[in-house]
């Protein structure tokens, strides 16, 4: 028995079944239980780029925030992709760092395989494919710029993989103000210095609102002598007692009659005891030796 089968070609295109399922079923059930979905957070970053003649100027702010807290005042948002391609990132700092590092390593392997510098459009395609794979859950808004054999290229890449190729691009929370400056100052034949000034024009607006501004010190605050009144004054004199040395007669008592009687001690004692003939006081450092001689003298008298 032969089974009859009809060949059905596969249906092309992207299936949005999961999107409708998440939006209609899961989110509705989540809302019925009294929960709210998390909202996108404002990261407070501003990145921009402009093309002039055959080169590109990229610029960004240097502040990294955690909500309302400034985490880093001098944060670098420049990400190396290849020697001829650089990328600026806005959004979640961890996502931009890891995304650009992964694309940079892949482009390095591509450059080693082909034996030439990678093109800017290659980096753009890799970034688009990676971000589209995660459906916007990677919070990386990128400005990609570089120069290759085909000329200068400047792209803006959104977290959902949407891209634009424009002569000037801005992204981040301050993109609206930056875009207004670009539309006012940009020309097709703009020079390098003009492009830099156009990029950094917004720097004048940064101190627009500065909370907790530190005051300026105008002078020294030193009190002159006599400003504080002395209520009471008391002077106490201290008296120090001088150390007293005992004489040889007092220390030895009646046992040290003459210096010749002390010469009968051992040879070791002779080296330590100095000549006492005609000397009234003895050295305090040699007191243990003298006491030993006196004790030996007492023992001899007891034996006698």
TrEMBL record:
GO terms for cellular component: cytoplasm; proteasome core complex. GO terms for biological process: proteolysis involved in protein catabolic process. Signal peptide: none annotated. Keywords: Hydrolase, Nucleus, Protease, Proteasome, Threonine protease. Residues 211-239 form the Proteasome beta subunit C-terminal domain. GO terms for molecular function: threonine-type endopeptidase activity. CDD domains: proteasome_beta_type_7 (cd03763). InterPro entries: Ntn_hydrolases_N, Proteasome_bsu_C, Proteasome_sua/b, Proteasome_suB-type. It comes from the Eukaryota. Pfam families: Pr_beta_C, Proteasome. Coiled coil: none annotated. This is Proteasome subunit beta type-7. It comes from Tupaia chinensis (Chinese tree shrew).
């Amino acid at each position: 028995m032969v089974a009859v089968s009809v060949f059905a070609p596969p249906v092309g295109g992207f299936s949005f079944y999961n999107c409708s399922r998440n939006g209609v079923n899961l989110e509705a059930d989540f809302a019925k239980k009294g929960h709210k979905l998390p909202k996108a957070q404002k990261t407070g970053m501003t990145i921009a780029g402009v093309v002039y003649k055959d080169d590109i100027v990229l610029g960004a702010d240097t502040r990294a925030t955690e909500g309302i807290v400034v985490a880093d005042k001098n944060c670098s948002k420049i990400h190396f992709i290849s020697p001829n391609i650089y990328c600026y990132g806005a959004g979640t700092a961890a996502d931009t760092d890891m995304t650009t590092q992964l694309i940079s390593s892949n482009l390095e392997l591509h450059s080693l395989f082909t034996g030439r510098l990678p093109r800017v459009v290659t980096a753009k395609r890799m970034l688009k494919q990676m971000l589209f794979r995660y459906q916007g859950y990677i919070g990386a808004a990128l400005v990609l710029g570089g120069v290759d054999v085909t000329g200068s290229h400047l792209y803006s890449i959104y977290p959902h993989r949407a891209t634009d190729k424009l002569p000037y691009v801005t992204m981040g929370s301050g993109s609206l103000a930056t875009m207004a400056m670009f539309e006012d100052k940009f020309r097709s034949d703009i020079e390098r210095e003009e492009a830099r000034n156009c990029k950094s024009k917004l720097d004048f607006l940064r101190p627009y609102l500065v909370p907790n501004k530190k005051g300026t010190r105008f002078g020294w605050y030193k009190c002159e002598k006599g400003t504080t009144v002395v209520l009471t004054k008391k002077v106490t004199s201290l008296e120090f007692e001088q150390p007293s040395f005992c004489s040889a007669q007092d220390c030895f008592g009646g046992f040290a009659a003459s210096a010749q009687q002390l010469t009968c001690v051992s040879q070791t004692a002779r080296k330590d005891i100095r000549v006492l003939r005609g000397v009234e006081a003895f050295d305090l450092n040699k007191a243990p030796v003298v006491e030993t001689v006196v004790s030996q003298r007492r023992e001899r008298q007891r034996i006698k």
